[in-house]
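User: Quick one: structure for sequence A, then sequence B.

Assistant: Sequence A:
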Amino acid sequence: MKRISILLLLLTGSIALYCQIRNFGYDAAGNRISRTIPGFKSTASGEEEIAPPKTYSEKLGDFEIKLYPNPVNLHLTVEITGLESGQEVKIKVYDFAGKLLNSAEIYTGLIQLDFSAYPSGLYVIRINTGGESTEWKVVKE
């Protein structure tokens, strides 16, 4: 019984010591800017950590389509490689309820869609190239 008590005391003591370990981050002037406690996700400033915007790409027939940034704030760039002159691409923007918000026909490989007037939420981009189409989900922050 005595051995179990001592073992239990040592285990709880080591866990308490582990919880006391903290890592601090400092800026160039020596000011503490972050604190990390093992097992917890926290920052000293209280701000959420935000993932950087990503570029997404997909092959659609002879074309490669890239959308960036996602999530979007003001403008979403749609880049289509492999588009020959005179070929038409239709791009439509829908809200998540299915309401058509914007429609564009392009003949070049690059367009920027203006998202500044849209509220934050989830949107669907439908791209038609000839007989093929694809849909993308885009987050507006």
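Sequence B:
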Amino acid sequence: MKQQRLAEEGDRELFKDLVGGVESVGPPGAIDNMVPETTEDFKKFSEKLCEKFASLEGSDHFQDFVANFIEILCRDQLNVATLKKVKQNAEAFHSAKLKDEKAKGKAASAKAANTKKASLKSGRANDHMSLAGGGYDDMDDFM
């Protein structure tokens, strides 16, 4: 429990650093220097955040970071109405991604089924002992 709380506090500090809780020196268009006030400013800020997240996407820790980041936002910063919108969008994206994964899985399995594999046919027609007559018959061992 204590370890989780420490991790959450660390994530909050990362969020504050990312959003501008710490003064930094950088280019004027950098995320750290942005203080959005209008709808247009927030759109630009959103684009910059998306670019930053896209650059971090290859990291092994990215998925965990995003999960913690969203958890902190939902718990601490969002009101109920906004949280409801986020929930609906997340569920819609989840369903769409599941359908895509299932379609990819079915396409891969159908492709594998379409490739013919060599097979060995066995049966009485290929049994040379039965063709020779008087050969071994399974029914001879019956009682």
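The chain has a mean pLDDT of 79. The first helix runs from residue 2 to 19.

User: Thanks, that's what I needed.
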